[in-house]
Structure formats: structure tokens, C-alpha cells
User: Which sequence fits this backbone?
């Protein structure tokens, strides 16, 4: 349970209730980080706008590579919410989520390509305290991804560090999004209504 309880929808402002509604429709539930941040409505709105903008801007890398690096950060920081939500996002994009169970074996696992191994090692180096990024890592990723791709990867890893560390500090843990039933069938309004009422 989060160290600060999420703001109930009936106590949220009109815009924030709209954010809750959209999140419920899209993900099958209101992400707890949204509900916790809703205690600061302007920050919630800024975060939602920023996340939408990042999603629009992230076009240089294959989503599989970006999502894999972000997932790695979540595991290293220990944010169970981010691991849970990230698994769901990868599943919804049709990516291979079974290999995520072997993420710690990435340096030698045949489940990961060479460029994925480089990106995962970069995620580890950026997430380490203090960071351990090397010139060779940056040069190798620039050669593989191009400058724009390298910048996008760096931004995605840094952003996930912020998310994961914030969630970890506030005690926000997994919500069950990774389960196959976490996102309801949009054609079944009774199922959606049942979920919104906690059934």
C-alpha cells in the first residue's frame, strides 16, 4: 500500500476525474501513481501532458528496444509497479514478455540481440549510483542507433529512473496490470463497469 493514499475520484477536480476516466478506459484501472500525484492537481496534469508528449516524440527507436531498457531500469531500482505496468505495455504491443523473466541473464542470454544487450548495459550504467556510463558504451550505441536514437534511449532511461524512484519512495507497488485480464475487452461495457466498481 502506498505511503500516501491515492486521491479518491469523488474528491478530485473535474479535470482530474477526466484523467481518471481516460486511464480507466485505457488501462482497466486508474494507475496508483496518478491517484497519488492527484493530491497535487497541477503536477498530475503536467505529468499527463508530458507523458503524452513523450509518447508522441518517441519515434526513433523500435518500441521493443525502448520498452526493454525502461523495464530494466524498473527491475534495477526495484519498482514493482513499474515492472507490472511495463509488462502490460509490452504485452499489449505484442512483444515477447516471457523473456522478461530472464532479464538478469541478458549479457549472455540468446533471448537478447547484440543491440539489446548494449541498451540494457547502458540502462544499468545510467541507473547505477554513481553512474558508470563509458565513452565506449555511448559510441557503440551511437553507431547502432544513430544520434537521435541514442538521445531517445538516454531520455527514456532517465525518465524511467525518475518514475521508478518516485514510486519506490512513495511505496507504490504493483496493481496487477501484468495479468492478462488487467485490460478489459472494450466491447464489454458490463466488464468495464464491474472493474470501475472494484468487482
Assistant:
Amino acid at each position: 500500500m502506498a505511503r500516501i493514499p491515492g486521491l479518491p475520484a469523488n474528491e478530485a477536480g473535474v479535470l482530474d476525474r477526466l484523467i481518471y476516466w481516460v486511464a480507466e478506459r485505457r488501462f482497466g484501472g486508474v494507475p496508483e501513481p496518478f491517484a497519488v500525484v492527484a493530491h497535487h492537481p497541477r503536477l498530475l496534469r503536467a505529468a499527463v501532458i508530458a507523458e503524452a508528449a513523450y509518447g508522441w516524440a518517441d519515434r526513433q527507436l523500435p518500441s521493443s528496444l525502448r520498452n526493454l531498457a525502461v523495464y530494466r531500469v524498473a527491475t534495477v531500482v526495484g519498482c514493482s509497479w513499474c515492472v507490472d505496468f511495463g509488462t502490460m505495455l509490452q504485452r499489449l504491443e505484442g512483444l515477447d514478455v516471457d523473456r522478461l523473466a530472464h532479464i538478469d541473464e541478458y549479457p549472455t542470454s540468446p533471448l537478447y540481440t547484440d543491440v539489446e544487450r548494449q541498451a540494457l548495459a547502458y540502462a544499468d550504467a545510467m541507473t547505477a549510483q554513481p553512474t558508470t556510463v563509458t565513452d565506449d558504451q555511448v559510441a557503440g550505441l551511437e553507431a547502432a542507433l544513430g544520434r537521435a536514437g541514442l538521445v531517445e534511449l538516454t531520455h527514456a532511461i532517465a525518465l524511467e529512473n525518475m518514475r521508478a524512484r518516485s514510486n519506490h519512495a512513495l511505496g507504490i507497488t504493483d496493481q496487477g496490470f501484468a495479468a492478462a485480464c488487467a485490460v478489459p475487452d472494450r466491447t464489454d461495457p458490463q466488464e468495464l463497469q464491474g472493474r470501475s466498481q472494484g468487482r
Notes: The chain has two domains: 12-57, 60-181. Residues 180-199 have pLDDT under 50 and may be disordered. The helical segments are 14-27, 32-37, 41-57, 63-77, 80-92, 114-127, 135-169, 189-196.
